[in-house]
Amino acid sequence: VAALPALVGAWRHRAGGLLLSSSGEFPIRHEALERPELRADKAPRSINMSSIGDDLLRPASDGFGPAVEALIVYNSNPVAVAPDSGRVVQGFAREDLFTVVLEHFQTDTADYADYILPATTQLEHWDIHRSYGHTDVLLNRPAIAPMGQAKPNTQIFRELAQRMGFCEPCFEDDDLSLCRSAFGERVDFEQLLATGFSTLALPEAPFADGGFPTPSGKCELFSQRLAAQGLDGLPDHIPNYELPGSSVDYPLAMISPPARNFLNSSFVNVKSLRDVGAEPLLEMSAADAAARGLESGSVVRVFNQRGDYRCRLKVSARARPGVVNGLGIWWRKMGLDGHNVNQLTSQKLTDLGRAPTFYDCLVEVESAQA
Q1: For residue 321, what is the domain's CATH number?
Q2: What is the pTM of this model?
Q3: Which of 180, 186, 184, 200 is nearest to 139 (CA)?
Q4: How many structural domains comprise the chain?
Q5: With bands split at pLDDT 50, 70 and 90, how would you rate the model's confidence at 355?
Q6: Are residues 257 and 185 in the same domain?
């Protein structure tokens, strides 16, 4: 599909190409914010958060490095949102893991914290934003002073750096200075202060004459870069890890789109929004429900080799035969049995980008009374 605009010559026309996300167009000065030169010859380890369940339980080894002994969690609720959450819970429940969570709410992850530090909300701190779907840089100006003992994540990091003995001037930069540094001269910051947004000056047909960000400058249907990484240089179909029809025990493919009344796992703690959805739902076709003797409105157990969770069944034409929709992402402790849909999802990663494979998941469904 991504090759079609090149095959028909659509790239030469305004709005004739392909857009996956506009976020890559924002000229963020990562080096100004991350200051990699201060690391000298040190190479900090990166751990993929999609495999945090296994990695928190992994012992020290030459390949992995030292075991994870301490963790600071911010801007995330991994116990609810990370795949294979049974393993994630085992990892966070380790007695020898020191966990600090920066949060506004008592999330599933905060339940496993040794310390919870109150973080500011968007109403209380400076920030600068890019977008997935437009090309305006947005400035977030605090509307109120931080409430109670709440501090921005950045302030907590500054104080932590001070106590750890880091004395470089960058650790004294306040949040407004960091916002200015994020884009530097590439964005008119005075306009941001005046209006709250600044539109990027981008061509409407950027690749009308070629100039793609590839070695050849062309839209490459074969990528030597990917081939050099051991990946297929041509667009091709990569089969599922859990191929529908491959398992007698788990014949149903499950996807887990967000429930309409939440934003993924955000706002699940808001009772009025939970009341809209009432309970975690599983959508199933009439044919699949009839084959299992299940009725709409009954409580069912959804399970596979990784675990199970209970939810309310809704027979719906939104689910095609052979596929069930486990609407998420409910916090585990607010579900019917202390689990959620990610109890069943896998930590396997995609070949390109090493991203999670939430929708590559086989399950079976039975009555919770079975």
Answers
A1: 2.40.40.20
A2: 0.91
A3: 180
A4: 2
A5: very high
A6: no
